[in-house]
Automatic annotation (TrEMBL), chain A:
CDD domains referenced in this protein's UniProt entry, alphabetically: NirB_Fer2_BFD-like_2 (cd19944)
GO BP field: energy derivation by oxidation of organic compounds; nitrate assimilation
Keyword Signal set for record: no
EC number: 1.7.1.15
Gene: nirB
Stated name of the protein: Nitrite reductase large subunit
Residues the record lists as binding siroheme: 689
One function term, GO molecular function aspect: heme binding
Pfam family, one: NIR_SIR_ferr
Keywords: 2Fe-2S, 4Fe-4S, FAD, Flavoprotein, Heme, Iron, Iron-sulfur, Metal-binding, Nitrate assimilation, Oxidoreductase
Pathway assigned in UniProt: Nitrogen metabolism; nitrate reduction (assimilation)
The protein's assembly and partners: Homodimer which associates with NirD.
Ranges for domain Nitrite/sulphite reductase 4Fe-4S: 636-773
Automatic annotation (TrEMBL), chain B:
GO terms of molecular function: 2 iron, 2 sulfur cluster binding; metal ion binding; nitrite reductase [NAD(P)H] activity
Record's keyword terms, sorted: 2Fe-2S, Heme, Iron, Iron-sulfur, Metal-binding, Nitrate assimilation, Oxidoreductase
Gene Ontology BP terms: nitrate assimilation
Name of the molecule in the record: Nitrite reductase small subunit NirD
Keyword Membrane belongs to the record: no
One Pfam entry name: Rieske_2
Domain Rieske, first and last residues per copy: 13-117
Matching CDD domains: Rieske_NirD
Coiled coil: none
Amino acid sequence: MKRIIVVGNGMVGYKFCEKMIAKAPAGSYHITVLGEEPRPAYDRVHLTSYINGTTAEALTMASLSWYKEAGIDLHLGDPVLKIDRAAKTVVTQSGLQIPYDILIMATGSAAMVPPIHGVEKKGVFVYRTIDDLDKIMAYAKGVKKAAVLGGGLLGLEAAKAMVDIGIDRTYVIEFAPKLMPRQLDDAGGAVLRSKLSALGLKVHTRKHTYQVLGKEQITGIQFVDESELSVDMLVISTGINARDELAKDAGLPTGPRGGIVVDDYMRTEDPAIYAIGECAAHNGMIYGLVAPGYDMAEVACTHIIADPLQGAKNERTFTGFDMSTKLKLIGVDVASFGDPFLTADKAQHVIYEDKVNGVYKRLNVSLDGKYLLGGVMVGEASQYNNLLQYYKNSMPLPGALDSLVFAATEGDKPQGAGISALPDGALICSCEGVTKAAICQAVKDGNESIDDIKACTKAGTGCGGCVPMLKDLAAMTLKTMGKEVRKDICEHFTYSRQQLYDLIKLEGLSSFEEVLEKHGTGDGCEVCKPVISSILASTFNEMILRKNNDTAQDSNDRFLANIQKGGSYSVVPRIAGGEITPDKLLVIATVAKKYNLYTKITGGQRIDMFGAHLSDLPLIWKELIDAGFESGHAYGKSLRTVKSCVGSTWCRFGLHDSVSFAIQIENRYKGLRTPHKIKSAVSGCIRECAEAQSKDFGIIATEKGWNLYVCGNGGSKPQHALLLAQDLDSETCIRYIDRFLMYYIKTADPLTRTATWLNKLEGGIDYLKKVVIEDCLGKCHEWETEMQQVLSHYECEWKAAIEDPSIRKRFAHFVNAPDQKDPTMEFVEMRTQKRVAEWQ
Amino acid sequence: MNHTQQGVDRENWFLACQAEDVPHNGGVCVKRGDEQIALFYFARTNQWYASQNLCPHRHQMALSRGMTGSVGPDQQPKVACPFHKKTFSLNSGKCLSGEDYQIKVYPVKVEDGNVYIGYQPLSNTEPVETQQFAAIS
């Protein structure tokens, strides 16, 4: 067994361990890790989030138990003092002397502190570790003004931290004439500066800091030009220095700008010693990002494991790394890739600048106009991933470049083409170095969900920026495999809702138990039961509580009422079109008083009565039904209401009688069960008082007839309905609605509103028009007949329930004390009505 | 049929209801003093289960009105609370929705069409409040 010592337990040192454990044959290596910091490796990339309350534990890369289980000896808070290359041992501060066969230097970097007088004074900090942050946060109490030295990536990160800590005024001091001088051109830097200034940061560029003022404690800083700035705290974040001192002492060569010199296999001059991460200098370059560090860990790891005896030439080498980057700085998107500075003799420029909104974009395109060579984005960078792929893979650019510069606007179809055009070698996840080919292969191997892909390839587990691309790649790969993303409704049925619908209809199955018996396994569950019950109801429209189907209904359907906090139910009788007589209002008032119910007008132009005991429901409904009311199906995934404006009968603008049409439509489709709830409305003119364009189907009167809009909804993601057909007569309008609803019922996934259904429908509204209006599937006649049949079976569920003693007896809280109500139900008074006591 | 006859140990069991009072593949709520117990009948496997009626998530007396079902290759019986669809194993009382809740489950036996529930919970657990507290600390 070979002994490996890893010096340093940062992100890259940890990644090396992780990769060794995963790749090396069990029992072939023993790893000892020696860390200087007192805690195991943590995520330094997201260090700023520590200020916002992310705990050190949450930032930890892997728990102590992980190291233990992996058989790794982890020594924390015990830095290595000396490497004895001749004896192949290291000596630590605590006096341990440990022998090695292979030594991995992963010592990382330290904050670079420029030669400024007085940096030892109180109130001057660097920004590098959790300990640094603890010290800064402790000192920051009472600090009003802070300065951050450094206007690069790290400096702006530190500035964000000052803002997050809540310091009133933060100055950013940069030596160069602009912010982020390594990533941004002058115009980009200027836009970033104006955005950050607008957010309250004071930016000073071209400032050469000379000394820290104050006796023992900082009171300000003085610049070489003798100007002064009074501040209570200074955070230095100007860059990094490779931690190469140990290696230097051991006689290993270091680069001119520091860093342990390594070859393409990450080997130092001593073949038993490797260096990876920020402490390594490859071709004179030190890479201060995590992604190249991970790549180095991978290279070192494969090189160590490759068996030299078998002469296996290891192909994995480190050949430099693209330093393209995208980040959000204090709420401002900034991205830079390739060579952002190419001048006019080397590249053509595509430049977009919007000073009003603070957006700047620059693309450097090859002189022949074919390839992307680099670019800068400030203020808006949603196209970064796409552009990076064009650049990295030298993909020919499309003719028009505006689609590359601007984000796809809402409503545009997502561009799948960009992804399928990528070569197999395209790096999708730069943090973990995962290619498009590897991701597609993982999907083909059966890792079809994003979680599975992450677990299998590790892609998307770093910064997470590539997750949207993973989703697209998974969907694309499954599609090319001739496989839709599996839509099994749950573990008990290997069918999609659409397949089950067809089976049930074809075989005339009429109860959940029958469907389970023939096509499912186990006892079903809270997912498949409501789906199948809904299909049965949509297909046959039999009273849902018969044939022992009651317990297969969703909880609200089972009791034909909506369960509310505390376990009481609400009662909503149908008030078609929102039209109600004073006599019926009196009935509702009488019933509500008698059973002590809270009343409220709903958004759908009807009246909801809350706080009914389970055992009172049949009594309440008996009275309502005797007075001519019917169930309002507020509890079902079915037609809710058809809202109306007052229409031409009263309104001086009204073109048609919207109320009569709304009542006709509501009565036509009442009781129709659908994959999700459906709502409708009819407006008497274009003023649209009934808000028909926010409904699953909405109708608006025109001079010549009705316009029919479909697939709108309110809710968490509001979406306007789209115009399906214009100037229809009432009969045609209803025929189109029949067809539209049948198509939706037959093809939608469970619990999918019409808006989402349309969004997923290939061809969108144009295709829907072909299906409904032009009958391109040749199904319209069949659907209209089916709809007629389903609707003809309508009966008021509540009437049926109270007339059937076996159903009625289910409406009791206690099976062994049917007359008693649930004693735990509590109500309190509010605005002279009752409300339920707040739940615990 | 008289439920106090031989075979039923009156010390540890109480008569809940008649078997025919319970819907197939669903539950009812049984009152025993101040206690509420949810009783379930799985018709396909002809199995009976009982648990506390209180859903520990939002303290609602609702489990008896939940949808029953099974989960996993061993088809573990479960119930989903009507309020937020938290599911619980009817064998162990453990919450199956990834939280640390635990409900009490009781033995059930049926004799001559009478359903009896055992006094002593099968899952020997602390009261709900203590459980939750323990999960946080």
